Amino acid sequence: MSAIEQKSLSELESSNGQKAQALTDGFHLVIDALKLNGIDTIYGVPGIPITDLARLAQAEGMRFIGFRHEQSAGNAAAIAGYLTKKPGVCLTVSAPGFLNGLVALANATTNGFPMIQISGSSERHIIDLQQGDYEELDQMNAAKPYTKAAYRVNRPEDIGVGIARAIHAAVSGRPGGVYLDLTANVLGAALDADAGTNSLVRVVDPAPRQIPAPESIERALELLANAQRPLIILGKGAAYAQADADIRSFIETTGIPYLPMSMAKGLLPDNHPQCAAAARSFVLGQADVVMLIGARLNWLLGHGKPPQWSPNVRFVQVDISPTEIDSNRPIAAPVVADIGSAMSAFLAALKPGQIKVQAAWTKAIADRKQHNIERMAASLDANPNPMNYSSALRAIRDTLARNKGVYVVNEGANTLDFARNIIDMYEPRKRLDTGTWGVMGIGMGYAIGAAVTTGKPVVAIEGDSAFGFSGMEIETICRYSLPVVTIVFNNGGIYRGDDVNRGGGTDPSSMTFVKDSRYDKLIEAFGGTGHHVTDPQGLTKALTETLASGKPALINCVIDPTAGTESGHITNLNPHSGISEKK
Ligand code: ADP
Ligand code: TZD
Ligand code: MG
Question: Is 237 close to ligand 1, i.e. is its CB under 6 Å away?
Answer without folding.
Answer: yes
